[in-house]
Amino acid sequence: DQFKVWVARARHHGIEAFLSMRMNDCHGLEGHGDFWNGHRKKAADQHHFRGHQALFWKENPQFRRAPYRYERSFEGALDYGHPEVRQRQIALIAELFERYDMDGLELDWMRWMFMFAPGGEEKGLAILNDFIAEAGELKCAAEKRWGHAIQLRHRIPAEPQTCLALGYDVPTWAERGLADQIILSSFGSAANFDYPIRHWRCLVGKDVKILALVEPAVMASPGATANSYHFLFAAAASALQRGADGIYLFNECYRESSGADSERDLLARMLDHIGSLDSLDHLVRRHAVSFPQVRAPGEPQRVVLPVLLHNRDIGCDPGRWAENISLRIALGRVQPDADYVLALVFSGETDMNQLQEMTVRVNTVPMERCAEPAYADCMKEAFPGKDIARYPARAVRPLYFKPPTQALQHDNNIVEFEPPPIAGTLEWAEFLVRPPESKKNNSRT
Length: 445
Known about the structure:
Blueprint: H1 2-12, E1 18-22, H2 43-49, H3 52-59, H4 83-99, E2 104-108, H5 121-146, E3 151-157, H6 160-166, H7 170-175, E4 181-185, H8 197-204, E5 209-213, E6 217-221, E7 224-227, H9 229-241, E8 246-248, H10 261-273, H11 277-280, E9 285-288, E10 307-308, E11 325-330, E12 339-346, E13 360-362, E14 365-366, E15 368-369, H12 375-382, E16 397-402, E17 412-417, E18 425-434
Parallel strand pairs: 1-2, 2-3, 3-4, 4-5, 5-8
Antiparallel strand pairs: 6-7, 9-18, 10-18, 11-17, 12-16, 12-18, 13-14, 13-17, 15-16
Helix pairs in contact: 4-5
């Protein structure tokens, strides 16, 4: 029993042992209702598919969230509106509490988020409230049996309105003592620099710990991705500056067993630094404009980029009533002695000659044009031996600017400029932060 052994070894080393249960995992369910359609043959997916979830899914098509749709695996998600589905999931939770002397149980609502038939989410709020209350009763019974407190935590979407739209009444869970911790998350590898920590603190109170998932990739918009572990460090700095109680890693554990020293060293480095603003101050970081990624079906995406340089709808958008473009970039804690460089990267059809005289400001203060910073060293360090693009594919024409450090402020900074009315789009925007000690050793920190 690997989990029993793991819990015992964690406790031996003085480490809290949490188990995580995916509440609607859909790995390997692609295809038109077939048990296995050969679309994905990775061993990991075959393993998932042979599991209990897949057998239940195969034998009970009437319990699927949207049985008339088979575009992707998440259309095989089970519908918690059916009592049979809830009873099965509660039985699994009961088994975990009975078998394992854990310090906490995590209910992972991010795998794969969709718990109800389309249109059933509103009724689902009360359904999940009752479901989690039943899980709480099982937890209390386990606490008496094992003789110590057991925490209950939930991995959820980052935005409160998205949670409600999916059927997750998280404030009620907290009010009823059914959420010791919440983990604000994205779905895939998508760093979020704009977690609404203050909103959640007002909703769940001061006693619930708020953790923030950080990732090594950024999506500026759907499909427009860049990769660097300096994003992960920046997202951690932003979340901690906003009051997050801790940082959460997802799937980074595989680095420990990868067989490569560089991967294990990277994991150790993350664990050494990401829990403290003071420690993160010593690392190169990339703070980019991103979008939350997770949303309920039909909900607005809240995508900022790309932005057309020529605004054809003057007076319609309060965020851009005229030609001026404004961006919010969260910098975490500003360091007076660090170097900051702003990168604005435009699409290929942009006439860069038309942008040479453009004034770019941060918090109303003009910035000076500067040379390209040493991104290449950062990228090689973050992904040893891999050819990683520094920007998404459509972001090909960069301009760089040096802000006066005294013009920057903790957390949100407003970058604004008025481009000429030309063809092209702004595809990417970020601040690179270079601590003073990294200047001495070519960014190796």
